[in-house]
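Hey, can you fold this one?
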Amino acid sequence: MKTMNKDPKIDRTPPEFRLMLLCSGKSMSEAQIAEVQAILSEGVDWKVFMTLLDKHRMIPVVFDNLKVFFKDETETPGLRRLGFFRKQCMARSMRIASAWVSINAAMNEADVRVIHLKGPALSLRIYGDIDSRISKDLDLLVDTVDIERADRVLKDVGYTRQIPASDMTPRQKELWFKNNHHYSYLGPNAMNIELHFRLSLFLYEISFDELWAKRRTDRYGGMEYAYLSPEEELLFCAYHGAKHGWSRMRWLLDVNELIRIGAADPGRLAELAGERRLTRVLSQAFILCERFYRTEISADLLAAGGKAGSGRRLAEMAIPMIMAPEDGIGTLMDRLVFGTWEKSIRKARGLDRDDPR
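Sure. Predicted structure:
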């Protein structure tokens, strides 16, 4: 994947932030390696650096890329501490992968169709392993008609539903399904599960059968698992990052690496983005990848994001959220910007009535 020229605004960011960007991709060019060496030679505030990596959920991939610049990582206290956190991340990833395999096996045994979103499935696709991408939970998408069976499967393997309550009335359940998109569970080792019955509250009208028909499959832990088509996956990752104000660079990195893989068909991507009213969101993601990762995106793929003007404005709005030192401003972006736009679409579709209290 080719790289573009530097962006002056991004190039003026603190060296710790630039170091994180340079070391967060699956691979580095010779020019990027030279930049990393220059930053390291000038000195890095390791406390600031680790805070950034923690906020943006970048510890595994950045450490793996950065350690090759040191003859002995134990001689640098900051890198040694980063390596300790890397091992912790790996241990958690292994626990998540173990839970993923057992849950997938139980769902398959119960003949429940499941599409696996983000998490270990996405890590395997991008990095070829399950520990280079941090996940705090597992996201499973099932058909609405299968939600009760999937709920029973999760309870049978040791997970307790936290939200919504298990004693909902029929009316409460109807309102929940109309105004939400997943159930939340807590299981062994504080493992979180989100059982989705639609991709999101906004992406309301997508048929599970449509997603299932275009699904891809792979194998891990001796079991087959299903995941989204290339176009659906790229669009969903762009939507997810935008919804949360891109407050974690990991979400933008997901999009950037999926662009690098190049599996999405631009024509189909443009069609889906138009149908979902996500063209501007896709354009925003592409522009942010260009600016932060200097990614040269093909003309066909850029065309899928429509006219650049609106996407560029959204990208400019997102940059302060990305650069903010705390997580809260990303939530603010979600509420003030993306939430307002989302509600307007829901109102146009008549989906804003009978909100539960």
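The first strand starts at residue 114 and ends at 117. Let me know if you want another pass with a different chain boundary.
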